Amino acid sequence: MAFSSTFEIYLGTYTRGSGPEASRGIYHLRLDAETGRLSTPQLVAEAENPAFLALHPSGAFLYAVNETGEFEGEKGGGVSAFTRDPATGALAPLNRRPAGGAWTCHLAVDSAGRLLVVANYGGGNVAVFPLGSDGRLASRTQLLQHEGAGPNPRRQEAPHAHGVTFSPDERFLLVPDLGIDRIVVYSVSDDAPSLLPHLPPGAATAHGAGPRHVVFSPDGRHAYAVNELDNTVTGYAWDAPSGTLTPLGSAGTLPADFTGENTTAEIAVHPSGRFVYASNRGDNSIAVFERNPDDGTLTPAGHASTGGREPRSFALSPDGHWLLAANQHRNELRLFRIDPATGALPPPRPPPPPPPPPP
Fold it and tell me: What's the predicted TM-score (pTM) here?
């Protein structure tokens, strides 16, 4: 999901399946920041498995991964570019490129709008695409392959790059790799839109943790990784000059009495920097943490049910008043008003009406 500055929302989806409820691509809706009313999602672009989205810093373009095993006649996933009408939110196809690895799952655009990077889960690699002034994707210029494996034979038999996050000053790129239990750090070249090896090459996580996504605190002093396999969030002190991560400790995402199977999915830091949120698929909840702004440590502060199944993604509104969670296996959205004093999430509001069936 990606929020625009006007509280317009774009939804990425999986298009597998059939029938009137099957998704067809990218959807658009609006959030009334005062009332919390969500409009009915409308299809604005047909695309295959556009599972993760990113806006261009100008707001004029939107990019989507295509999480597939084959794309444009090549093995692997892809990435698609769209122009965006700021008045209506409508999208129009611009161009597409193969991503160089299967199951392309995450992407990021730098603040200058010159560089797009993607994580290929199946390929265990990171692809680099320069961006033109017209928003188009140039041909892929780099494909950086990770190596290794982890202790979980089912999920960590090989590298699985799962996210890409620029450091606040954009001198570095952090890539959590679920398969090798490492947050890999690359240097971003000043001379050309490219990535370079960095020393030290990142930070190892706990064995079997399976890091999935990384986010930074608003002050840029701390980073937080959500670990999909061991259901934890790990905090790190970030040294910006050297591009190094120092672990601060981990906190569990699950209630003490939960005994079922679970994997975590998304993570976000509140714009105030006071709270951190992570989603649980299994417990079907959002875990809430209080963040110490001085040392970056986290204290568990409760859980909120998403009222559905598999909250794969969620996003915070730019003003910090709302959290919108997407329940993947219910094909629905749930909106929470965030308590500004505690960060708590009261029971979610009813979901918006479903989009009309395709003609």
Answer: 0.94
